[in-house]
Amino acid sequence: MHTRKGTFALAGVLALAAAAAWAGPGSVISSFHRFLGDRPTAVYRDADYVYVVNLGEGLSNYAIKYTPTGSYVGISTLWFCRYVPEDVDHSFLGSSYITLAVERGLVTYLKEGGTPVRWDHNDLRETIGYAHRPGSQYYFVCVWPESRDYDHIVYAFKTGGSLVSTFIPAEGGWLGATDRFAGLGGEYLIIHGGTGTCDIYDPGGSLVATFGHEAGCGIRGGTAGPGYPASWGTTLWVLGSWGHNDHAVFQIDLGNGTPSAIVPTSLGKVKALFR
Questions:
Q1: Were 131 and a residue from 88, 139, 175, 248 both cysteine, which residue would form a disulfide, CB within 3.0 to 4.6 Å?
Q2: Which long-range contacts does 92-97 make (Cβ < 8 Å, 24+ apart)?
Q3: How confident is the model at residue 193, as a pLDDT?
Q4: What's the longest Cα–Cα distance across the chain?
Q5: How far apart (Å, rounded) are the C-alpha atoms in residues 93 and 66?
Q6: Dist. CA 69–CA 134, nearest whole Å
């Protein structure tokens, strides 16, 4: 459940310190501290708004919609899901939808809420992460098996549902997907596990880069989406959670915008800087 999975080892202190010395991947661009709901679990960013998904009561969860600077806009009720909404991201069904990892696979809703449009992969028990980049042929699911010899498994699927690959990440957790990292184009999966670092993988499971971030060790449930202001390019939007009613939304730099002080010639250089 949400409470059991919310505890991670506090690690990556040196990587976090390295990131804090630079403007670039890992820097906090902005944040807002508001009432984000009674039990917030994940953050989604689309072209216009930021949505904070909450664990609700009974058979419903809900998403609170904000502007990128934290002004309240509205709320959507997500009916008939009794599972914890662990992670949320762009839907592979299109921009009118929102897809969540909910412990028993993926559930998709219209953004205005209502009843589920569809369920997928409900055979993947203990699903905690999901990511998709709009326009990509891939989406990703992270599972934390109950009975295991390893901590996590990441599955890469084609948008039609066929399995492309599986791999065991160095650290599992919540997911984001982007076509740019440190200013370089590609197909990248971001794994953030609440340890103060983020790992970047390609769809085949090869580790591309690791960087520390300034948002602390309590982040979860993020989405790679449009930066605010737009000059930041694609950024990572995550939930910071440190206890009851102590939550914030953070926007973390991925090194894709003109304000970034790092313009590396290769991802290998980024990896060297942040490890």
A1: 175
A2: 92/132, 92/139, 92/159, 93/117, 93/118, 95/46, 95/47, 95/134
A3: 80
A4: 51
A5: 23
A6: 23
The amino acid present at 219, given as its one-letter code, is I
Dist. CA 45–CA 162, nearest whole Å: 26
Residue 192 contacts residue 174 (beta carbons within 8 Å)? yes
CA distance 181 to 190: 10
Strand, helix or coil for residue 57: coil
**Within 13 Å, how many C-alpha atoms sit on residue 144's CB side?**
21
> Could you give the CA distance from residue 178 to residue 2 in angstroms, rounded to a whole number?
26
Residues 6+ apart with CB under 8 A from 256: 178, 180, 181, 182, 183, 227, 232, 233, 234, 235
Element containing residue 272 per DSSP (H, E): helix 267-274
Residues in Cβ contact with 164 at an 8 Å cutoff, skipping those fewer than 6 apart: 138, 156, 157, 158, 203
What is the structure's pLDDT at 125? Answer: 87
For residues 236 and 222, the answer to whether their CB atoms sit within 8 Å is yes
Confidence at residue 274, expressed as pLDDT on a 0 to 100 scale: 36
- Report residue 200 CA to chain centroid gap: 12
What is the structure's pLDDT at 272?
Answer: 36
Axis-axis angle for helices 13-20, 267-274 (nearest 10): 110
Give the residue-averaged pLDDT of 141-154: 82
Contacts of 272 (CB under 8 A, 6+ apart): none
- Determine how many CB atoms are found less than 10 A away from the CB of residue 170: 13
Three-class SS state of 146 = coil
pLDDT score at 259: 52
How far apart are alpha carbons 101 and 18 in whole angstroms?
32
pTM for this entry? 0.85
